[in-house]
Amino acid sequence: MFILVGIAILGSAVGLVLYALQNNVSLYFTPTQVYNKEAPQGRNFRIGGMVVEGSVKREKDGLTVHFDVTDTYKTMQVLYKGILPDLFKEGKGVVAHGKLEADNTFKADEVLAKHDENYNAAEVVKALELANKAQSAVPATEPVVSKYQVPTTNK
Q1: CATH architecture entry for 26-147
Q2: Which uninterrupted H or E stretch holds 66?
Q3: What's the whole-model pTM score?
Q4: Looking at the predicted structure, is the pLDDT value of residue 11 above 90?
Q5: Which residues contact 90 (CB under 8 A, 6 or more apart)?
Q6: Side-chain-facing half-sphere of 59: CA atoms under 13 Å
């Protein structure tokens, strides 16, 4: 009897831990994956890539910032209200955590920037490499886009 009660308590504890972890896991997606609807709807996830040059727009309140993130293939608009990290810059790697809004804007509740000149998050590097491979598969009749130049038609 004690063994069955112990197994039931242990099973319940394991179930509760797994349920809590499931709600706190934050998956990583690129703008291309979000565009392809691979990202979860209504759940938090991370999006990463490069901040598009000239895309950072600050509102008058001083805290609300709009910027675009690209994996060099697709671009995603991000809205963030808060203080950006000191290392946040256009043309540099960024990872944002938040949710996708109904208008396909990513509403971030946290923004992380790379920590030095030689480092880029492994996920961002992998995403950029995959996007470059996908872009290489595009027929030669389409214009070639440089590493940091973003086609405006792919928004």
Answers
A1: Beta Barrel (2.40)
A2: strand 64-70
A3: 0.62
A4: yes
A5: 51, 52, 53, 54, 55, 56, 67
A6: 10
